[in-house]
Amino acid sequence: MINHHLSDEMILAYAAGSLPAGQAMLVRCHLDMCPHCLQRLMDAQNVGGALLDELPEMDLNEGGFDRLLAQIDDMPVLDEASSHPDHTGVVEGEVLAASSSHGPDMPALLHDVMGHGFDDIKWKLVGPGIRQFILPVQGSEGEKVRLLKLSPGFVTPQHSHHGSEITLVLKGSFCDETGRYKKGDIQEADDDVDHQPIADTEEDCICLTVTDAPLEFKKMMPRLFQPIVGI
Amino acid sequence: MRNMQLTVGILEKGRVLATEDLNKLLVTLGRDRCKACFRTLFEHFAPRLKSFFLKVGTNEEVAEELIQETFVQIWRKSHLYDPSKAAASTWIFTIARNRRIDRFRSEKSFVYRDDQYFADMLVMEEQQIDDVYRGELNEKIKDAIGLLSANQAEVVRLSFFDDISHREIAQKLSLPLGTVKSRLRLAFKHLRTILKEMDQ
User: Fold this and answer.
1) Hey, which residues does A189 pair with through a beta bridge?
2) pLDDT by residue (tens digit) across B57-66?
3) pLDDT confidence band for B198 (50 / 70 / 90)
4) Chain A hits for B118, Cβ within 8 Å
5) Which has the higher per-residue pLDDT, B196 or B175?
6) Do B160 and A31 lie within an 8 Å CB cutoff?
7) What is the mean pLDDT of residues B11-37?
8) Chain A contacts of B52, Cβ < 8 Å?
């Protein structure tokens, strides 16, 4: 049961295609798990469709449709053969890793980027009880996409944000001043949030986190870590 | 209700096509590989898509290429179109959006690689929404957009068509980011309220 959903702004920006790569990836991973937000995405895309229909019509170059017909006539017959309604929705070569291959916990898109599941992640220790793995996702300038693993019993250094931090829980749960976050939950933290997450069960908590500016830690100890950690 | 049998012959040039007509054309294209339907869809959407692609600050040549790419995808994927899930304009919007991302924002094209995936995942369990409903829905959304305040409509349009982030919209309009976000939230709430009323 997911309790913390994506904000309207994130849904709209995803529908419009205007989120940076890392955030878009995180949103998509959440949508994989959350029918509620998926329905909201559909609504947002309907808005896009309605707006498209109302855009002014602009003159096309001559012969556009004929060029198009020539192009589709040249397309390999293979396309036609695979064009029967396909109830799995899989179009050859265009669908992401099938759900069976990535285990129960990791969203398909993430598995696709990582090339493996949680068990094979090469975690780096960044502080007591905190491990991270930086994902090779090229987002906008300053955007950083990482997996974080919080071990039970350790408190993440209190930190605040210059930019935004968005987190999706993939495994386990954590809590902080703003509430409790379980698998599938989203936390969007803005400039004004100042928090200290703690994994609050026996299990490690694994999160996908996207930040658009470096985090700022409050206390001395973690600040010493910061240059090494690069959080 | 309206159970109009759509035959391509009826569609005279210049006639304004209703949402429902467009949905049926796309279904027929998927089922019968109907080139006349394809042409009608092209004549309706291509001039609008040109506006859409030109808004990103690209030139005519690139806009025309992207229109071609979009329609190749429409041709290839039309058999997957399901009118109970989205209006034709919505389905075509997502394809055009993905073409634009592929061209200008290739760093995130992997995220949007197959948006059809979502349309398939979403199963309406409680009720089978019919084509007529989706047709009405699209009209309702258009009406609802017309009723948004000018401020709200502006941020919604900018976010959908100018391919800029909310932060960039804030800069462009010289507004705090929070104001842009709250306008978007209010606009979306308003639109969703209308959608919910239709569900009842």
Assistant:
1) A165
2) 789 999 999 9
3) low
4) 31, 38, 41-42
5) B175
6) no
7) 84
8) 52, 55
Query: What element of type H or E holds A176?
Result: strand A173-176
Angle A60-B45-B99 from CA coordinates, rounded to 5°: 90
d(CA A8, CA B115): 19
- The CATH number assigned to the domain with range B15-126 reads 1.10.1740.10
CB contact under 8 A, B114 and A94: yes
Domain map of chain B by residue range?
15-126, 148-200
DSSP state letter for A56: P
- For chain B positions 154-173, those within 8 Å of chain A (CB to CB) are 156-157, 159-161, 163-166
Domains of chain A: residue spans and CATH: 1-231 (2.60.120.10)
List CB contacts (< 8 A) between A85 and chain B.
30, 79-80
**A21-79 pLDDT, tens digit each:** 999 999 999 998 999 999 899 889 989 999 998 899 999 998 999 999 999 988 875 54
* Res. A98: pLDDT tops 60: no
Kindly report the length of chain A: 231
CA-based nearest distance A225→chain B, Å = 30
Whole-angstrom CA distances from A211 to A22, A25, A166, A167, B58 are 9, 13, 7, 9, 30
**pLDDT value of position B200:** 59
Distance CA A214, CA A140 (A): 13
What mean pLDDT comes out for the span B18-40? 93
Distance from CA of A111 to the nearest CA of B (A): 12
What does the block give as tokens for B132?
Answer: 């007529």
Query: Is residue B13 scored above 70 in pLDDT?
Result: no
Q: How far is A78 from chain B (nearest CA, A)?
A: 11
**CB–CB contact A39 B46 (8 Å):** no
ipTM comes to 0.84
Architecture of domain B148-200: Orthogonal Bundle (1.10)
